[in-house]
């Protein structure tokens, strides 16, 4: 059955991308479907200001690579996350500088006494700062896998697709990342998915 008169919004991602090779304007439907997810991921990785520019870069790269898209992948979201992750890797230096700046601008030490200092250490703000440090201490690959899995709710298979790695590698990276984050936080029972979704 011919779908020559189909509306772009009615097509699956794979077919839409394939058709956008000859109908470039149709690629805008991919942006409309997935931009919010990719933007949220980029905000977590590079901050809200840099995320705006990075989002445009992700879709520009995707548009330029659309002719080589694997149409066996019906959902383009893992592909877009992979492009976004590669762009984030190019911004690692800026990201590390930002984390160091956040640490430097942390709350000033108080002199009121030991009890107040202990109470302050268990506030949400200090926990978030500690989590930022824990995430910064992960290897690039482990951090990418954990952020995509816990922060973006991708399945193991989708993380593997986004990063271009085997499923077994995803599992080992996630296990190692969870263990390291929990050890750094000193809370082996912490639910990393909830925390990463906020701070990843």
From TrEMBL:
One of its GO terms (molecular function) is sigma factor activity. The keyword Transcription regulation applies. Keywords: DNA-binding, Sigma factor, Transcription, Transcription regulation. Belongs to the sigma-70 factor family. ECF subfamily. The keyword Thylakoid does not apply. Residues 31-95 form the RNA polymerase sigma-70 region domain. This is RNA polymerase subunit sigma-70. InterPro entries: RNA_pol_sigma-70-like (IPR039425), RNA_pol_sigma-70_dom (IPR014284), RNA_pol_sigma70_r2 (IPR007627), RNA_pol_sigma70_r4_t2 (IPR013249), RNA_pol_sigma_r2 (IPR013325), RNA_pol_sigma_r3/r4-like (IPR013324), WH-like_DNA-bd_sf (IPR036388). Transmembrane segments: none annotated. Pfam families: Sigma70_r2 (PF04542), Sigma70_r4_2 (PF08281). CDD domains: Sigma70_r4 (cd06171). Residues 130-180 form the RNA polymerase sigma factor 70 region 4 type domain. The lineage of its organism: Bacteria, Bacillati, Actinomycetota, Actinomycetes, Pseudonocardiales. PANTHER family: RNA POLYMERASE ECF-TYPE SIGMA FACTO, RNA POLYMERASE SIGMA FACTOR HI_1459-RELATED. GO terms for biological process: DNA-templated transcription initiation.
């Amino acid at each position: 059955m011919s779908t020559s008169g189909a509306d772009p919004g009615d097509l699956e991602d794979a077919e839409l991308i394939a058709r956008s090779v000859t109908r470039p304007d149709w690629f805008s439907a991919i942006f409309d479907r997935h931009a919010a997810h990719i933007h949220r991921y980029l905000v977590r990785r590079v901050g809200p200001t840099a995320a705006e520019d990075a989002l445009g870069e992700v879709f520009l790269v995707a548009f330029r690579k659309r002719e080589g898209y694997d149409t066996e992948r019906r959902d383009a979201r893992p592909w877009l996350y992979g492009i976004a992750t590669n762009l984030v890797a190019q911004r690692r230096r800026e990201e590390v500088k930002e984390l160091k700046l956040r640490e430097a601008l942390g709350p000033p030490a108080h002199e009121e006494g030991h009890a107040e200092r202990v109470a302050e250490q268990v506030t949400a703000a200090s926990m978030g700062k500690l989590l930022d440090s824990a995430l910064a201490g992960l290897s690039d690959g482990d951090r990418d896998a954990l952020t995509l899995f816990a922060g973006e709710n991708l399945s193991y298979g989708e993380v593997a697709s986004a990063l271009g790695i085997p499923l077994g590698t995803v599992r080992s990276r996630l296990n190692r990342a969870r263990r390291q984050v929990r050890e750094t936080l000193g809370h082996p029972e912490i639910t990393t998915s909830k925390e990463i979704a906020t701070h990843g």
